[in-house]
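The freezer alarm interrupted the setup, so I double-checked each line after restarting. Inputs confirmed:
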Amino acid sequence: MASHAPTEHTLAPGEIAKPNTGWIWRVFGILVLITAVEFVFVFLMHPSTLRNSIFIVLTIFKAFFIVAEFMHLKHETKGLIWTILVPVALLIWLLVALITEGSFIGEVLQNMFK
Amino acid sequence: MAQSTTLQSPAAAATHDAPRTGNWDGGNEPFKASYGKLMMWFFLLSDAFTFAAFLTTYGMIRHKHEVFTGEAKDFVFSTRWWPIPDHVFNAFPGMGEANVPLGFVALMTMILILSSVTMVLAVEAGHRMDKKDVQKWLLWTILFGSTFLLSQAWEWSHFIHGHAEPTIMADGTKLFGANLSMNQYGPVLFADLFFFITGFHGTHVFSGVCLLVWCFIATTNGTFEKRGHYEMIEKIGLYWHFVDLVWVFVFTFFYLV
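Predicted 3D structure, all chains:
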């Protein structure tokens, strides 16, 4: 919070502070760059588990910048940060469990009549 | 830690207007965030569960289906295997049947990220109580949000009407496009998941645009100016960034992977 807050005490009444937007455009640059890198991988690499892992890691980077900077979570109290992050982290378990289950169901169905 | 969580003395608690400042003594800002912002965070957390359920379902169903194992250039649409996304989403408005794999979705992603940037700029202007700047950046955000919605409408329309080349089904019929029970791209559930996931996201964008229009009207009327703060813009900003965040995940899991 403090790092982005305008310096109000130096202002005369009714005066409007100068915009402090450098950090916003910096984060924008990072998000565009990561998206561009994703497209490089789409066209230069054949689909594989490695490529998918790269996409997921890059997505998590993008998510980090949106949540931490744009949604300001990085500058909130520790209690709020953990309140949001812990339930979301549990979703990874759900994702892994159900994808494994999906592969298993697919295998059973494909081998059913063999 | 001990100091911040200490309870108030009985004497202080007895006077009703004494501020409650500890984390656990009923103070009105438990995480040093206002009630409204905190509730917006909890709503977004629950919304994240809904979207995570959708995307997890997508992952499970996709893994249930066969994978096309040949070379990407030999790929043909078939109900046997899951389609390769850059073969499905390769059209661009005004370019006819030109093959632009993922080109349009890249543009949509840029538009939504830009709208997120103009939203932070509006929040930043609100911190400075700069009514003119808030109005300007809200208008840009509304513009980008609406452009995204129109792009999605085009994307849906193209998906529903199909490519120029039909897919020949096992019984010899030619199939164009997609609906909820049949589609030319792959297994039935592929189109169903497309409609549900991008549709649910689009509904969120639409609600966001409505909220932003309301915010613009309230800003113009000076509602926030009179209130002394632009926190409403911050709360709606949180929602708007969340919608962008969800798109980042939909983009990866639906279009890239």
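Quick read of the result. Confidence is low (pLDDT under 50) at residues 1-6 of chain B.
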